[in-house]
Design brief:
alpha/beta; Undecaprenyl pyrophosphate synthetase; three-stranded parallel β-sheet; two-stranded parallel sheet; 5 strands; 45% helix; globular; binds farnesyl diphosphate
Length: 221
Amino acid sequence: MDGNGRWAVSRGLPRVMGHRAGIKSVRAVVEAAREQGISYLTLYAFSVENWKRSPREVDTLMRLLSEYLRRELPNLMKNGIRLNPIGDLKGLPAGVRERLRRVVETTRPNEKMTLNLALNYGGRFEILQAARRVAAEVKAGKMKPSDLDEESFRRFLYTEDQPDPDLLIRTSGEHRISNFLLWQISYAELYLTPTLWPDFGKQDFFNALVEYQRRERRFGA
Ligand code: FPP
């Protein structure tokens, strides 16, 4: 969800106002995905690298996140959406963790769509923690190294039994992956758009889906 900072600065506003404006796009895209019957949507809200930003910006992002979780819970329930945070959640402030815990618990029975929220997320770290857990299982004698294959390894990832993403959208003209779902996006179609995240609405999301439908996916075949 890139381009919040630039959106604000180009209007002479502080960067944090861009994140605030970005929430509107979060709502629009979650709603659009749900309307289209998409089963899994992942939003990259905070990376392990984002702690390098100013304390004020980090603090605002955490507050916006808490506010979003508090305000959106009724909407998630109404629309049958389950919240599934992914990332190193232990590193988040206690207040955010507590709010996440409540929303996860309340939305657990919902089955229409899973909303993965990537928080303190890093793709390399995700693979590392999976490797550590596999090593621990082997050490405990619960698993042999030869038991490990792509199918069994994926169960140690945050996304466990979810299908791999079909489509990866990146806004604001960036052409990088930036440590996002490194294992899972092996065959994802990339949709790169110059639109800044706060300007990205329902129609932009539909345009991305239409472009995706035009692609021929070969999975190496
Ligand atoms: C990247 O844009 C965006 C982020 C680091 C944060 C995204 C967060 C939100 C949209 C709001 C909170 C999220 C939820 C789910 C409630 P940038 O700041 O790097 O923009 P720039 O590239 O223009 O500097």
